[in-house]
Write a structure and sequence with these properties.
The protein is about 10% helix and about 35% strand. It is mainly beta. It is elongated, with a radius of gyration of 19 Å.
């Protein structure tokens, strides 16, 4: 006789889900009004703190978690704020690009296989009027996080 129990999230599960990730200033990502996301646990697509809360949940579950400040994406690291010279920005992207405070810019990883993001904090300083100060911390680093999830499928 076939089992009627729903599949549970386990390490390495492949998930189809809607999720919302937000902090004190609002949502960073919300798929509930769009198509669902698909991802595999353990591949770094979600932070370990978020993945831990998904383990053991049954397909079809809709729930929300409040994650304490610093647990989901670590504490803010002051050394993750760095000035980038305009010459280097021109080499990595469009030389005509204009940068504005609040812009999020994707940078290639040194191996060229991935990317990481930096948010513009300041454009120009006394030493270099065209250098740009980027913050490479996750936008929710050091902040409490709300994670809402609806598990559509678990494989």
């Amino acid at each position: 006789m076939p089992s009627t129990s729903l599949p549970l999230v386990q390490p390495g599960s492949f998930l189809t889900l809607h999720y919302r990730l937000g902090g004190p200033t609002g949502d960073i990502i919300n798929t509930f009004n769009d198509k669902p996301a698909t991802l595999s646990l353990g591949t770094g697509q979600l932070s370990p703190a978020v993945e831990q809360r998904l383990l053991g949940l049954a397909e079809g579950t809709r729930t929300s978690f409040d994650i304490p400040a610093g647990e989901a994406f670590g504490e803010r690291q002051p050394d993750m704020q760095q000035w980038v010279a305009r010459k280097l920005l021109n080499q990595m992207g469009d030389p005509l690009e204009q940068y504005h405070v609040g812009d999020v810019v994707q940078f290639p990883t040194p191996d060229g296989l991935g990317s990481y993001a930096g948010a513009v904090q300041q454009v120009g300083n006394g030493d270099s009027p065209d250098a740009v100060l980027f913050d490479f911390n996750h936008p929710l680093a050091g902040q409490p996080v709300t994670f809402e999830v609806q598990l559509i499928g678990v494989l």
